[in-house]
Amino acid sequence: MLISVLSFIAFTLFVAFYAWRKTRKENLDTEDGYFLGGRSLTGVVIAGSMIMTNISTEHLVGMNGSSYKNGFVIIAWEVTSALALIVAAVYFVPKYLKMGLTTIPQYLESRYDAGTRSMVALFLLVSFAVTLLPIVLYTGAINLESLFNVSEVLGVSRETGLWYTVLAVGGIGSVYAIFGGLKAVAVSDTINGYGLLIAGLLVPVIALFMIGEGNPFSGMGKVFENSPERFNVIGAKDSVLPFSTLFTGLIINQLYFWCMNQTIIQRALGAKNLKEAQKGLLYTGALKLLVPFIIVLPGVIGYYYFGNQYFDSQDMVYPELVKKVLPVGLTGVFAAVIMGAVLSTFNSVLNSASTIFSIDIYKRLIKPSASPHKLVLAGKLSATFLAVTSIVAAPMVANAPEGLFQLLQQLNGIFFIPIASIMIAGFFTKNITAAAAKVALVTGLIFYILATFILEIDIHFVHVWGIEFLLNMGIMFLISHFWPKEIKEVAVDREGANFYKWKYAGIVSISLVIITLTIYIWLGNV
Description:
This protein is mainly alpha-helical. Helix content is 75%, strand content 0%. The protein has helices at residues 2-23, 31-35, 43-54, 57-60, 62-70, 76-79, 81-99, 104-111, 114-148, 150-154, 158-211, 216-226, 249-259, 262-269, 274-290, 292-295, 297-306, 317-325, 328-366, 372-393, 404-428, 434-454, 461-482, 505-523.
């Protein structure tokens, strides 16, 4: 235990020291300096930060728990992300950078009006507070409690141990985001991101060596023979993720998450130029194709080891597998990487939330004459408030019937799909009015809550996303047709060397498409 604790502390302090050293001379009293890292991020840093913002313990714990129970069908959440990242790199981000955006709601004011911008900003802040942040903290606490037996060491109940762990992780993550700004977040994410890839791959590799008695290929053969049906990626109609969902709501969700989500896109907005932004997005796409080896395969290996033992508590499978296969000396380093995964998503969301509050609410609605220093201060105070509320809410997400990852996706649909609807309508149509966008935001939210959480409708929630999207588009076209108004033109006329495209973007994009299709053709025939 002592070796584990010491290695945990050493790695955690190394990341903190490295982030401080790389950002100690940054000017954090300006909008660009604090919220966008001085618009100086490179492709490697953007990719590392994006992966760590996206992949946290709700994936390590939640997706491995889901794959333990359901098999490889859930791989769709990951590999289809590469396709959405291509769209972000080729179409959306060039437009964002040429508009000089700091936040996504700024685009909505340019395309619709100030009211639409305010509504979406409020939607995003609420979604951060009640969905993503509490689940990230709680899944991180599950892992750390399991690895270090916090409750046993402190002599308290497991629930109390989880609460203490949530409090500690939330407090440390808040320090990164509140005092370091985006640059500190991105730099620490880069170290943690590549650490997660290495440490995360060690878990299935060591497990396969153990199962195969020194031969990982033999180990994979044994895992496959134990339950070959779990390697098939084509989900049945009654599965946790039917294959048909890839062509309905999942498309909309992926486009929103990777092309329009402030928490993700803020890294690309902080790029030093378009080339680096496109590199970062496409590098992220390549990394997402490796991610299933970390957040899906271990769950299937867990089924080999544990059988049906954890079917009623699937979110415990990954921590138990880690304890079973990792040597004692590596447990502490892995726990530090887990801590980094929690911190990266937590502090990234806090940073994005503070950006939205400062730029889209405080500067516009509360104090338009605020100085850059006052804006940064407002951002820090809003991040502090959000951190406290998410720490309090974290224990409330325990015992999700279909697992924490599935719960997160269901909750995200409340806000993601309505926002995606008006964003896509704004980019690809010319006659949708601001009034129509506002109505669609409200009706989409009400429809989804009714269809998913109140009424018993026998339709998969991802299909409900697709239905909601079509409903929103229909409402917007009808309102815009019968009550037309003058449509604002969005200016995207910034030019210069900073907006030259990456010359390899096309080749990399085609390669990612081919690899994605190959995965489905290959594993679809298992």
